Amino acid sequence: MSRRSLQVDDLLYQYLMDQSIREHPAQAALRAATAAHPHAGMQISPEQGQFMALLVRLLGVRRAIEIGVFTGYSALTVALAMPDEGRLLACDISDEYTRVGRPYWADAGVAHKIDLRLAPALETLDAQLAGGAAGHYDFAFIDADKSGYDAYYERCLQLLRTGGLIAIDNTLWSGAVARPAKDADTAALQQLNTKLHGDQRIDLSLLPIGDGLTLARKR
Ligand code: SAM
Ligand code: CA
Hints:
- The protein contains eight helices and seven strands, in the order αααβαβαβαβαβαββ.
- By secondary structure, it is of the alpha/beta class.
- The protein has a single domain, classed as Rossmann fold, CATH 3.40.50.
């Protein structure tokens, strides 16, 4: 009996972990290797990763984009969920962060599926469009600088095929989006959420998983 999403306390969260998480050993090892990082909180949670992996399999994703790699957990998760010929265009600006993940991609046998581009994501996406890749991709995950989200969304919408899916992370921003914005990141997320709500180019769902995950299916 429920008219709204459940509040998940620590006990229930541990139950959810124990009863549902099926990580590859490299995923668990990469989470452990990232745990002591000062920005470890940027990593997606295992249950969000497993949900995204399920979406990737359901959609039969072969060509994916990730914007915001950090130490590579979400990239590893998406790569593991794709067939051997699948390819992930992974965009980040930090060699320092992404070099943490690369050995784990290799350990999992998916390094050949991940094409890491170290450059501002907008440059990488615009180069893809200039190279004729519009409509080429099945899936995109946006999880980088919040002020860039709207531009990433617009580029990804062009790069995706009809029926492709864009997943946008942190769209509930620890609840800050529901209150008057006190900073530029919150304002950017509020504007994007409002835009997506009225955007007839997509089918929409905003899920209270992790820090809020918006799913936008290209019509
Ligand atoms: N998806 C990752 C995971 O689950 O571990 C977390 C990504 S973290 C929240 C955001 C990342 O975006 C950082 O690694 C940062 O270097 C990257 N980033 C920030 N600005 C960027 C830009 N303009 N282009 C590409 N990446 C950027
Ligand atoms: Ca995030």
